[in-house]
Each structure stands twice: as structure tokens, then as C-alpha cells.
Amino acid sequence: MRRAEARREEEERVRKERREREEMGGEKQKEVREKRREELEEARFMPVARGVEDEELNRELKGRLRWDDPAMAFLTQKEEGGGGGGGGSTAAASGTGKKTYKGAAAPNRYGIRPGHRWDGVDRGNGWEGERFRALNRTKRNKELDFAWQEDT
User: Fold this and answer.
1) Average pLDDT of the chain?
2) In this predicted structure, what is the pLDDT of residue 5?
3) Which residues have a Cβ under 8 Å from the Cβ of 65 and sit 6 or more positions away?
4) Residue 127's closest CA among 101, 105, 107?
5) Span 109-117, mean pLDDT?
6) Residue 18 three-state SS
7) What is the pLDDT of residue 91?
8) What SS3 class is residue 10?
9) How is 123-151 classified by DSSP, letter by letter?
10) How far apart are CA 55 and CA 41, in angstroms?
11) Where is the region Disordered (predicted)?
């Protein structure tokens, strides 16, 4: 009898501590906790193997923001810009306030980005393109030589 009472008192004490800890948390923590609880409840009814045809998984994966996503800059600009204007300009203000070219540009040996008034036409003689191709070719050949070398 005493063991049962002690166990009941211990359970009540643990329950009270848990309730106090939850009350100390903020609204956001409660929302996150509740959302996590709902996700776990929904996960009980999901199949173990989720494939390509799972629409909910596809929506979740598409909605994630990734640091290396090249389209993230376009998506964040749309959210910040708020529409309007519609003037397909390729120039935008940078952090310093100066305008920069926002289109694709061929790399150059100094890493200088083109000016905001550049029309996208490469008027060079192709020397830098050849140089980058040669550098890439030698790098690739070194990697292939290492990969295909024989142990003797």
C-alpha cells in the first residue's frame, strides 16, 4: 500500500514539474511543441517507405530553403519587392548602394563583375575563355592521372 502511494506521489511530483516547466516557456515554444506533437501524430498513419508519388513529402521538400539554392536570390527578391514596376531591369542596388549587374556573366581572371550598364555582349577576343579552358583541362588531367595510376 505504501509503495503504491509513494509511486503515485512521485508521478504527481513529476507531472507538476513538467507542467511548471511548460508554463515557464513562451508562446512560440508552445506552438513549436504543439506542431511537433501534431506531426508525430500524423506520422503514425504514414507509410514507412515514402516515394516519389507522396505529394506531402514533395511539398515539404520543395518548401525548404537551402543555402546553396541558386534560385533563392530570385525567390527572396520577389518576396521583398512586392510586385509592381515590371520593368525587367537587370541592375539592382547592392549593399553599398551602387548598382550592380544581376545577369550571368563570363568569369574573368580578376573576378570583376560587369557594370550595371553592360549589355551582355562579350567583345573580347576569347583569350580569357581559352585560359580558363586550359586551366580546367590541366586540373582534370591531373585528377585523371591520379585516379588511373597503377600501384607498382
Assistant:
1) 82
2) 92
3) 72
4) 107
5) 87
6) helix
7) 66
8) helix
9) -S-SHHHHHHHHHHHHHHHHHHHHHHPPP
10) 18
11) 1-40, 76-125
CA atoms lying within 13 Å on the CB side of residue 130: 4
**Distance in angstroms (rounded) separating the CA atoms of residues 80 and 44:** 38
**Cross-strand bridge partners of residue 60:** none
Q: What are 88's three cell numbers?
A: 525587367
Rg (C-alpha) for the chain, rounded Å, is: 29
- What amino acid occupies position 60? E
CA distance 92 to 101: 7
pLDDT at 137 > cutoff 90? yes
State whether residue 27 is helix, strand or coil: helix
- How far, CA to CA in Å, does 39 sit from each of 25, 71, 99, 149? 20, 28, 45, 52
- With bands split at pLDDT 50, 70 and 90, how would you rate the model's confidence at 80? very low
List the single range of 26-40, 75-89, 119-133 with lowest mean pLDDT: 75-89
Q: Grid coordinates standing for 125?
A: 577576343
Mean pLDDT value across residues 97-114 = 85
Q: Are the CB atoms for 114 and 105 separated by under 8 Å?
A: yes
Give yes or no for a contact between 63 and 53, defined as CB atoms under 8 angstroms apart. no
